[in-house]
Amino acid sequence: xxxxxxxxxxxxxxxxxxxxxxxxxxxxxYRLPRSRGLTGRSACPGCAWSIVWYDLIPLMSFLLLxxxxxxxxxxxxxxxFVVELYSGLAALASFEWLGRSGLADAAFGFFLxxxxxxxxxxxxxxxxxxxxxxxxxxxxxxxxxxxxxxxxYPLTYQNIxxxxxxxxxxxxxxxxxxxxxxxxxxxxLAAMIxxxxxxxxxxxxxxxxxxxxxxxxxxxxxxxxxxxxxxxxLGSFMCLTASLYLFFGYAIIxxxxxxxxxxxxxx
Length: 267
Prior knowledge:
The chain is mainly alpha-helical. The chain contains nine helices and no strands. It starts with 7 loop residues before the first helix and ends with a helix.
């Protein structure tokens, strides 16, 4: 079923919905690695002052407070502003491009983008990929397949085999390196990506993430910001390339012949 054209008010509502979602995502990103519950009032990390509701308005509160706590005037991380803005724009992009065949597809696409956003930031800051977030991504994908229209990425046996294959591949690297090359969370994330995007999508995302990680690593060493033993968050690169693949997947596959590439590597 094709969706009805969206009005200006529809776009505004979608953007505001994305901002609110981004505010919640910030809570998840901050509390989850610290094993804190997601309920309860937010407080300043510096002075523990309970933040009032009018200081929690997405984007606006950060700008009005000039990026500082109202009580102690300590700087607030720009992460909060960037995450909220990204979430708002991601909601617009999802409903404009991913939801052309229906709102359920748009909602599922936005859900995946938020899952990848949480994992990207947490892995970047803490080098962990929480099982609860990956599990939520898998659960959401399964729900979409069984209860959604199935227009997005259908869950087939090829997807399941891809998930299993990618998990085993990364798991073996984890075992051989004793966790020094990558973490077990990377294997679980790779499995989730394979389950959602299937063989071509999963391999393309992982391949591009490794290439991107190599480029970033070389650039950091060139500017003497890192050394050969510096850890890089592979999970963050996978989340970034997976998010890009949601919008540009078909173009990526057409520009890079991954099938022939894999056959050449096999030889």
